[in-house]
Amino acid sequence: MFFRRVVPELDSHISRAMPTSPSVRSIALVATVTVLCDVLAPLALPVAAQSSAPDGGRSSPVADSAAMARAAYGRAIAAYRKKDIATARTEMARAAAAWPTQQAYLENSLGLAALAHDTVDVARWLDRLAGLGIGRGAPDDSSFRRLAGAPVYEAALQRLKAATAPVPRSHVRLTLADTLLYPEGVAFDSRTARWFVGSVRQRRIVVVERDGTAHDFVRPAADGIGGVFGMAVDEARRTLWVATTSLARMQDFAVTDSGRVGVYGYDIDTGRLRRHVWAPRDSSVSHTFGDVAVAPNGDVYASDSQAPWIFRLAAGGDSLERFATHPLFRSLQGMAVTPDGATMYVADYSHGLMRLDLRSRSVTPLRVPPNVTLLGVDGLYLHRGALIGVQNGVAPARIARFCLDADGGGVRRLETIDRNPALADEPTLGVVVGDSLFYVATSQWDKFDDAGARVAGSALRPATVLGVALDDKTACHPERAVGESRDLL
């Protein structure tokens, strides 16, 4: 979950904040109009094409749209600072038109409409949010209280509440009592029925045995490992692969650790470290390895959420190579490799879902209908031809099924599988086991600051992994009934 909010974006006059994880999430959804001047400066920065990209550094229409949106957003901020609400509204609306599924722009437009007492426009933005199934409603402040009772406003507000209501289909599968574990990823070995839970803070991996007993699989900081992020099991080669990043939030951090990212591979049966490879240090750019994926041929991939690269450790290789980049790579997160090893689906927190051809290394954004947002996806998994995403960069967070077109190049529809805020306050990464997804529900990112200090007044929770059923014979079919789901087995 680290380094996703690379450019904190304004919220819409809402004093209740989303979890402000460490992360510099590109799609950030926190702040308020009242503190606007403090948070908007970074937002005018465009998304630059990467000169080292395989496509020669050419830009992308999607990246260009995002850049136009950020530029309009910056102008909206400047107008707001001058108390020019009319211009701020116009520019924010332009940002939303250029990037229509970005929740921050929609909610900012909503807040500015409320400041202008424009009830009809407030209702319009509420309906835009409801159509995407995201949004936090209207806060209890004077701008919105002034609208209370207006039929058009109340009706739109109810539509949004219905579209974002909890969908609590998940159940607790694992609980570890250690409230300081600070988990990010979870993995499962089907041969031994053992679970692995990684700790960002404690630099360790806990294994939960078949009988429920838990103990260290990797001791804290063993063999120099940093914070433990994504994990993946290569069952064919009996290896647990781990993405690791050294960061100030981990215990015993030293300044000399800065910039270290790598992958560790452990014998899953004995716990012995088989291989560990650190990426070459580069003082010109920061790095964070947030997730890891294994291809059928044994190649290991790591996503860098700060630098625009997917790295590869080739099967049998001894070094990490910069494998693929693209103008749309801004805050890379989860990866899912197809069973034939030809394609990887990639989640970028700021720019959505993409398809990477592992042979040509070409990248293509997925086609998407206007009522679906692909932003804010953290963990990404394949299940029966659909993509399953832990979408924690929208509010409220949810587990989503993205139904793909026949050619796999576009999303036809989105189905909310799970939205369980009572149990999952900070969902991050997961693992598909059979016909269920199991995911970390209490990652604790917003309970600590970037230096690793506990946030005053924060309530820590035991490390919890939830499970939700995915198997549904009618899944991804238009006739599927809303709310229909099979219980977790």
Write out key terms for the chains shown.
alpha+beta, disordered C terminus, four-stranded antiparallel sheet, 7 helices, 2 domains, Neuraminidase, 24 strands, Serine Threonine Protein Phosphatase 5, Tetratricopeptide repeat, 489 residues, disordered N terminus
**Which class do the helix and strand fractions yield?**
alpha+beta
Specify the CATH architecture of the largest domain.
6 Propeller
- N-to-C terminal Cα separation, in Å? 28 Å
CATH fold label of the largest domain: Neuraminidase
The CATH class assignment of the largest domain is Mainly Beta
Radius of gyration: 22 Å
Count of extended strands: 24
Question: What's the pLDDT, averaged over the residues?
Answer: 87
Let me know the CATH homologous superfamily of the largest domain.
TolB, C-terminal domain
Largest sheet: 4 strands, antiparallel
- Which regions contain 5 or more consecutive residues with pLDDT less than 50? 2-57, 480-489
Helix proportion: 10-25%
**Strand line-up of the largest beta sheet:** 1-24-23-22
Strand-residue proportion: 25-35%
Tally of discrete structural domains: 2
The outline comes out as: globular
Descriptive account of the structure:
The chain is α+β, with helices and mostly antiparallel strands. The protein folds into two domains: 131 residues, Serine Threonine Protein Phosphatase 5, Tetratricopeptide repeat (Alpha Horseshoe), CATH 1.25.40; 299 residues, TolB, C-terminal domain (Neuraminidase). Helix content is 17%, strand content 29%. The chain is built from seven helices and 24 strands. It has a four-stranded antiparallel β-sheet, with no helix packed on it. β12 and β13 form a beta hairpin. α2 packs antiparallel against α3 and α4 packs antiparallel against α5. The two termini are 28 Å apart.
